[in-house]
Amino acid sequence: xxxxxxxxxxxxxxxxxxxxxxxxxxxxxxxxxxxxxxxxxxxxxxxxxxxxxxxxxxxxxxxxxxxxxxxxxxxxxxxxxxxxxxxxxxxxxxxxxxxxxxxxxxxxxxxxxxxxxxxxxxxxxxxxxxxxxxxxxxxxxxxxxxxxxxxxxxxxxxxxxxxxxxxxxxxxxxxxxxxxxxxxxxxxxxxxxxxxxxxxxxxxxxxxxxxxxxxxxxxxxxxxxxxxxxxxxxxxxxxxxxxxxxxxxxxxxxxxxxxxxxxxxxxxxxxxxxxxxxxxxxxxxxxxxxxxxxxxxxxxxxxxxxxxxxxxxxxxxxxxxxxxxxxxxxxxxxxxxxxxxxxxxxxxxxxxxxxxxxxxxxxxxxxxxxxxxxxxxxxxxxxxxxxxxxxxxxxxxxxxxxxxxxxxxxxxxxxxxxxxxxxx
Amino acid sequence: xxxxxxxxxxxxxxxxxxxxxxxxxxxxxxxxxxxxxxxxxxxxxxxxxxxxxxxxxxxxxxxxxxxxxxxxxxxxxxxxxxxxxxxxxxxxxxxxxxxxxxxxxxxxxxxxxxxxxxxxxxxxxxxxxxxxxxxxxxxxxxxxxxxxxxxxxxxxxxxxxxxxxxxxxxxxxxxxxxxxxxxxxxxxxxxxxxxxxxxxxxxxxxxxxxxxxxxxxxxxxxxxxxxxxxxxxxxxxxxxxxxxxxxxxxxxxxxxxxxxxxxxxxxxxxxxxxxxxxxxxxxxxxxxxxxxxxxxxxxxxxxxxxxxxxxxxxxxxxxxxxxxxxxxxxxxxxxxxxxxxxxxxxxxxxxxxxxxxxxxxxxxxxxxxxxxxxxxxxxxxxxxxxxxxxxxxxxxxxxxxxxxxxxxxxxxxxxxxxxxxxxx
Lengths: 424, 424
Fold this sequence. Notes:
Two copies of one chain form a homodimer.
Chain A: E1 3-8, H1 21-31, E2 38-42, H2 46-59, E3 62-66, H3 77-85, E4 89-91, H4 93-106, E5 119-121, E6 125-127, E7 136-140, E8 145-149, H5 153-169, E9 175-183, H6 188-195, E10 205-208, E11 211-212, E12 215-224, H7 228-246, E13 250-252, H8 258-269, E14 273-277, H9 283-289, E15 298-304, H10 307-312, H11 318-324, H12 329-342, E16 347-353, E17 368-375, E18 378-385, H13 390-407, H14 411-419
Parallel strand pairs in A: 1-2, 1-3, 3-8, 14-15, 14-16
Antiparallel strand pairs in A: 4-5, 6-7, 7-8, 9-12, 9-13, 10-12, 11-12, 16-17, 17-18
Helix pairs in contact in A: 1-5, 2-3, 8-13
């Protein structure tokens, strides 16, 4: 049985809008072991829409159609599907009552146009819409299973979960479990080299490595024909091997971002943090404060973009900047110590570097970034040479600084290895 | 003539990947007055791919197909199209030389599999790929115009521009010009009310209002059947009316972001800036330093996340915090003055507020944010009540602060009205 997702709406054929609903539906179908064969995007024009649906009926057995169920003249999905199936649209008085009562509940006057929404295709069964006026429709013919869903995601998702998912569960072929390990400190190809021999050579478990600047995730997808727990066990077994191999390169195994991991560690250790940022200009503080409750451990920081700020606010000796430059291990060290002292924090984390596009020299090229962490034990400084545009260099610098902080607490590694056996 | 875009690749049918190439192609087609009727996404399976292409050939006259042109067994697009068209694939020795010479140029050994890429469909004309090994293909039959393009965007775009665009230009129906005005300070519906009567009631010029937190853009799309300059004139005429109506709500008419506008103003005025951030945690500094060359005017700042940082680093009097709280107009004023003084900058810009999700009270709810600007003329303070999640409140706060800075220089308005008559 081929599966097709059809997204209806002329706005989806402009250069601004992508159909994101289909990602959601695809993810849910995959959990049942069902793969999508075709995705189609088509506009509101009745004729074009009818052709797209005729083609879908000819090539696919399960068709999820979304959008174009509203009350306006542009909403032609019901009509087009009726034409493509060669079936009549019939008025459903009970459905009309449901649409009317939705408006009553909202104390909004119903437009006569909404009467359109009370028509269903002969043989179809309406699906309730708790978050909007457009009812959905489920149909089974000898050849097809078809769902008509509303386009707005906050209407589509609850309707899919309540009325489509239970019907699709009967088609379940497999149980699929996805797990994600997030890593930093190794590039995509070096990471792959390190774990390649662990790649399962079986069709029931798969690894993919989506990468972003400073981070490579390991997605494990395990399937079982028997049960969800059997799939879960397969995934866990592989995750244990990956963790044993990668150790503290892995910072998260439950979806947590690096800033959230760092935040959790600081809260658990009752440590406070202050930052001194040069080339990142506030991005490190921004990431740290994206975590709700970060005021428990994040005291603040100093954006020392210019040299004077480094000297006057952070106490970096003028001689250090003159002799070694503002982008130097000495300056980074002094910044980390300075912000720790000024803000009376347990930890001081500093970044200084050249984010580009200009300002680089042969000795100090764009992408040269020093990160330093000051604590009661002293200061650790690391030199990095990043590659990419200004925003990518800022992102990688903040990632490296957060990771330095994470690795400052080595117990975290043991914790990770211990916790992972319990799964999420 | 119906137009269809077909994206080939099983990874596009997972729940992670969206086809973004199609936005690019759609935008370029629209510039010729050509609308897309169908977008299809299909995997690598030969049979499914053939069906998708047969349907495309039956319903569309211009078909842009991308992806699946590589050397591996998963790359079946050429083969599937040949089957769908009922034509043979023929080996092209000259094309083979081109593929080989690409590898020679890169000093990389060619795999025997790359020989596949030297096959073309009978009647097709190869298109050169300067950025990869996969040649493209252009075909015209009595019924169809077809382009086969490589999937990677950095290969697709140059090939499209060099070899497909000139061929499509012959199909040009209209000249389309897009112009964007960016506004802040008015919500979507209030902005629409203000300009609704200026909406053209003609099919040749259209307004859309894409909105994001703290910003509503006005997209003007004008078409002319005669010439690009006629379309440009139509767009300019409407833009003048919109500008006259909206005045300094408009901050950009050439694509510049608010941080870039502010940066340009500060550079032109030779003014220096320092920031004091509480609830935004560095996001304002991050935005300001996303602009290359921002070190010319941005000196740095203080992230005063906790109260002690506000008192000790910014000199906010303890009594102000005790009496009015850290989220108060008095604290905001004191923060702006404090950072201006500490960093010896011409301007001090401060933000203090409650980004949530917790920390709100009935008197001071989540979303309450004060922004203040200190200059030699004194301090301006504004109270805001934003709505949304933590990240949206941070975004809106930074937007408001940047806009306060922009409006501090009233000449900017005259400049805008003067410059706009010259277009971009």
